[in-house]
Amino acid sequence: MEPQIPLILDVVLPALGAGAVAVLATVAVERLGGVAGGILSSVPTTIVPAAIGIHDGSADDAAFVHAMCFVPLGILLNAAYLLLWRVVPARLGMRSHRWLLGKTACVSLGAWLAAAAAVVAAERALAPSPAASAVLGASAFAAGLVVAVLANRVPHPAPRGGRGVGAATLVLRGLAAAVAIGLAMALARSGMPVAGGIASVFPAIFTTIMVATWISQGAQVPTGAVGPLMLGTMSVGAYALLAAVLFPRMHVAAASAACWVIAVSAINVPGYLWVQRVRRRHAAAARISE
Questions:
Q1: Least packed by Cβ within 10 Å: which of 133, 146, 234, 249?
Q2: Does the pTM of the predicted model rise above 0.85?
């Protein structure tokens, strides 16, 4: 029975947690709108148990730091993934209206998987040093932050959803995210920490948010949340970089809590306030021009 305990801690619990987060996140986007729902629902979640599991399973601190420094690269891929949800529908438009959601999801997920596979293959081929991994992680985080800020400079419509969603739909959303994150966590336990770090930020919850809100509320709700989600998810990269520094120096529970509080305080809270200010400024300018 003993081998089942790590499985429960490293795979089942994160998967169930991801399912709960997927439900709460989609409801937040639907009820609060794309701005508040997008930024506030993208706080670090699955990265928390993933970081703990990778830390406990790593041969040494250097291996853990190496894995965590690659997480911001995965977050950069997530930012690009979310951006595709804004770009692809605009490019296809009415020419592909009937299958627009399916094509957007396939293109976005296909691009993410191909890019993630290339990152993991490059890491295994080049075997960068911990110092080089730290530089790469910090650079990826900075690039992602710049892209996220640029994506929010021009406000996109991000209305609240106006339709009620049934319990069965919410359960299906949670199950879909739980299965996806469960598979990612299983990969994290396979002895490939970098692959596990990238897999831990697989955009299962983002996919659930985009698809579920598109189906239940219409395309404007999820596409309006793209920019705020991109900015909010930068806190996951911040959590990983902080974990690389704090986990080897503190008790894991204390380090995890400190990383979460600092990341959310530094990214999600000011990000929400800034995006709201940008939207108010653009709204005021639009009223004046009228």
A1: 249
A2: no
